[in-house]
Amino acid sequence: MAGRPLAAFPFSPAALWLEVGFGGGEHTLAQVAAHPDVAIIACEVFENGICSLLSRLVAEGEESAGALPANLRVFPQDARTLIRGLPDVCLDMLFLLFPDPWPKARHAKRRFVHPEQLPLLARVLKPGAVWRVASDDPTYQTWVTAVMATQDLFEASDPVRERPQDWPPTRYEAKALREGRSPYYWTFARRH
Questions:
Q1: Which range is most confident: 11-20, 52-61, 113-122, 161-170?
Q2: What is the rounded average pLDDT for all residues in the chain?
Q3: 181, 173, 183, 111: which is closest to 148 by C-alpha?
Q4: Given 91, 105, 137, 155, which residue has the most CB atoms within 10 angstroms?
Q5: Catalytic residues
């Protein structure tokens, strides 16, 4: 799938989107339903998340044989592995919603929003492509703000405090709101 991602889909999509760490799959499935002409690759390493998404798509006991929607493919490994193999300027949109904050300094390099990761992401995003990031973790919010303020690959925007209308909710967002945490929502655009 990595070298020729569109070959994984049985139609000619209008665009190619990637969601990194789809959690329970709520956002992914809402996007799949709302955009049948868009090819979406959803990455998740945690088995519970993959099972959650699949349980919404196929009947119990048919997980191994049930068909995914034509515009969805699941990559059950680290998204960085997929991204390294993708061709240049192939993605129209990228989602990173409520990632693990990796609060310890020694874990910071595991973050997707990281100075060392940004060139990799910029390479696979088309000029003008949109990258959406959301977090309810204050440490991660501060990190994203700082990292994106010092780079020149993406148009950096200030976060908004309310989820944009065309941005489907996730259970992580619902949990954060229930527990009194304020999510930040960023929309970055790949510079030309």
A1: 11-20
A2: 89
A3: 111
A4: 91
A5: 100
Q: Residue 9 is encoded by which pair of tokens?
A: 């889909």
CATH of 5-190, picked from 3.40.50.150, 2.60.120.620, 3.40.50.720, 3.40.1400.10, is: 3.40.50.150
Among 115, 112, 122, which Cα is nearest to 80's? 112
**pTM exceeds 0.85, yes or no:** yes
Which comes out higher in pLDDT, residue 126 or 45?
126
Which ranges in 67-159 belong to alpha helices (H)? Answer: 79-85, 118-124, 138-149
Residue 175 CB partners (closer than 8 Å, separation 6+): none
DSSP reduced 3-state for 65 = coil
Alpha helices in the chain (DSSP H): 26-34, 47-57, 79-85, 118-124, 138-149, 171-178
